[in-house]
Amino acid sequence: MWTVDEHLADVLAAVSPLEPIELQLPDAQDCVLVEDVTVPVALPPFDNSSMDGYAVRVADVAGASEEFPAVLTVIGDVVAGAGALPEVGPGQAARIMTGAPLPPGAEAVVPVEWTDGGTGAEAGATGTMRPASTAPEGAAGEVRVHRPAEARAHVRARGSDVKAGELALAAGTVLGPPQIALLAAIGRGSVRVHPRPRVVVLSTGSELAQPGEPLKEGQIYDSNSFALAAAARDAGALAYRVGAVADDAESLRAAIEDQLVRADLLVTTGGVSVGAYDVVKEALTADGEVDFRRLAMQPGKPQGFGMIGPDHTPLLALPGNPVSSYVSFELFVRPAIRALMGLGDQPDERRPWLRAAVAGDRVLSSPAGRRQFLRGTYDAGAGTVTPVGGAGSHLIAALAHADALLVVPEEVTEVKPGTELEVVLLG
Fold first, then answer.
1. Across the strands, what pairs with 339?
2. What beta strand segments (E) does 181-312 contain?
3. Distance of alpha carbon 144 from its chain centroid, rounded?
4. Which residues is 420 bridged to in the sheet?
5. Are 168 and 39 in contact (CB under 8 A)?
6. Do 232 and 199 meet the contact criterion of CB atoms below 8 Å apart?
7. Could you give the 3-state DSSP secondary structure of residue 316?
């Protein structure tokens, strides 16, 4: 038998990051940057106001108070995106909006709340600017300022976020929403990344019906392809689910050949054991490209892996029982997807592993010589994990209520309550 670690190492040794391509920002989300990105222009590119208020000279508002406000002449409006700017001279102020450039001559911004808003309100009243659309005269006349302001007050300095020439994002960065925002802010419309891998998921079994259809005698619904396609998307891939293929080797070979054109990774589920109708094994063993092996694990003992087709596309053949299939995905397919994305050498990109005490009042058994993966719920506050359901590989309802896998080592055959085990957190 192969160990779990040997099989995973064999898979990852054969999988390389996808070739980099240039993608527009909306398409680059969740992809991995392959080059350093430097800042071409400072952020912000000019001194600008952090408040709605009035751009003033410091000397003109020195000593201003509620009782003795500074009275300034309003010479115009400065709005975000403004081109030509009025120059603020002695005894003058310009209405300025958040994000608007600081006009020449101005040294600070006083928030509108420190003023009468240019409305002639009495001292102590809360200032509110009249909307420009309804009161154009608000940009002229006088404003009363009730507090002094220090130089550069409420002014965002040019380059206070990042300066031109600085490193914006390093190669290897995963592009989430904040990183996309930064790239857009510095003017990058596209970036060079490892693309998200295209993963094709294919279930096998003549007994499988599609959800929404009536079940015939002896049929069950195909849940594996839905579960694994969802898991592939969760791992960062573009997932394509193929309807169940009947237990016929020729049909399966044809289906796989059809899917190779759009697959960076193929995942099959079912048909990998030793039965007379295990067609995945029958269909893919003949050419020697896929190796079928037994692993010292439970669930998920039968596994297959190989490189198929003219482009040597990796294929992972997983067992058909729902829990076996999902556990196998987490252990082998998810790491392969992350490797294709360029994240294979980043341990923090894998599922979190930690140690937790087993809760409950029953002793758990585990087969000698096999690494067992039990489902459980993790309590972070208590530092415990509670088993959910039994060890059966068909217990999909228990899997749906689990958020962790308990890892029982190969040499352990009995786990008593309170025993510390390694735990893999899911999701």
1. none
2. 190-194, 198-204, 208-209, 220-221, 238-245, 265-269, 290-294, 297-298, 302-308
3. 50
4. 357
5. yes
6. yes
7. strand
DSSP-derived 3-state class of residue 263: coil
- Calpha distance 372→423 (Å, rounded): 11
CA distance 265 to 231: 14
**Other residues' Cβ atoms within 10 Å of the Cβ of residue 251:** 15
| DSSP strand pairing (353-358 vs 384-387) | parallel
CA 27, 31, 34, 40 torsion-angle sign: positive
Instruction: Decide: 378 and 385 in contact? Cβ < 8 Å.
Output: yes
Please give the chain's pLDDT, 427 residues, in tens: 999 999 999 999 999 999 999 999 999 999 999 999 999 989 999 999 999 999 999 999 999 999 999 999 999 999 988 778 999 999 999 999 999 999 999 999 999 999 988 765 554 445 567 665 555 555 568 999 999 999 999 999 999 999 999 999 999 999 999 999 999 999 999 999 999 999 999 998 888 888 898 999 988 888 999 999 999 999 999 999 997 888 888 888 899 999 999 999 999 998 776 665 567 778 787 666 889 999 999 999 999 999 999 999 999 999 999 999 999 999 999 999 999 999 976 655 578 899 999 999 899 999 999 999 999 999 999 999 999 976 655 567 888 899 999 999 999 999 999 999 999 999 7
Decide if 185 contacts 43 (C-beta within 8 A): yes
Q: CA-CA distance, 204 to 320, in Å (whole number)?
A: 8
One-letter identity of residue 417? P
CA distances from 167 to 40, 186, 282 (A): 10, 11, 53
Asked if 425 contacts 351 with a C-beta cutoff of 8 angstroms, the reply is: yes
* Closest by CA position to 404, among listed 357, 367, 363: 357
Euclidean distance between CA atoms 281 and 285, whole angstroms: 6
Give the residue among 379, 374, 247 at the shortest CA–CA distance from 323: 374
CA torsion 342-345-348-352 (nearest 10°) is: 100
Look at the block and give the residue holding tokens 């071409």: 40
Judged by DSSP in three states, 384 sits in strand
- Structure tokens of 25? 């920002």
Comparing C-alpha atoms, which of 240, 175, 234 is closest to residue 24? 175
Does the model's pTM come out above 0.85?
no
